Protein: THOC7 protein
Organism: Prunella himalayana
Amino acid sequence: GSFSSADEVIRKRLLIDGDGAGDDRRINLLVKSFIKWCNSGSQEEGYLQYQRMLSTLSQCEFSMGKTLLVYDMNLREMENYEKIYKDIGKHEKIIAAAHEKISECKKQILQAKRIRKNRQEYDALAKVIQHHPDRHETLKQLEALGKELQNLSHIKENVEDKLELRRKQFHVLLSTIHELQQTLENDEKLSEAEESQETQMEAEAKQ
């Protein structure tokens, strides 16, 4: 992966780029100084090459120490990032659980609202029912009203029968009165005729 390709780049720089900067340059200088030290003719030249090698080695050690420090720092940062990542994961789980709890609470609130609404409707219906008689009582009242209506109907029929009887009796009475009146009139006319006849006979007798 990325590490193998990076190793390949470093290897090529160490083998090819002899005049480059950094560790590869210091290593090349160290090798050259060692060769010159081996091939030095005088003690002074050998001592000079020896000092150069020590200086190059010090630079390499310093660079290596700095690299190790950077490496350790990177390791610590990676551990810190991993810890932060784990903490984020924990927080995400906590947040997800909180969302689920909130969702459940919303459902419970909606259910409680429905129950409260239904209870209010039931209470209102119960009050309406309390103000109205039950079916049995209503049927009893209807039965009593039916009987009373039937009695009133019988009374009405009796009254109508009596009225019809009285009407017939009154008609008979009127007829009797009319006949009596005719009889009286006839009797009166007869009496007048008899008196007239008697008067005439008396007058004839006097002559």
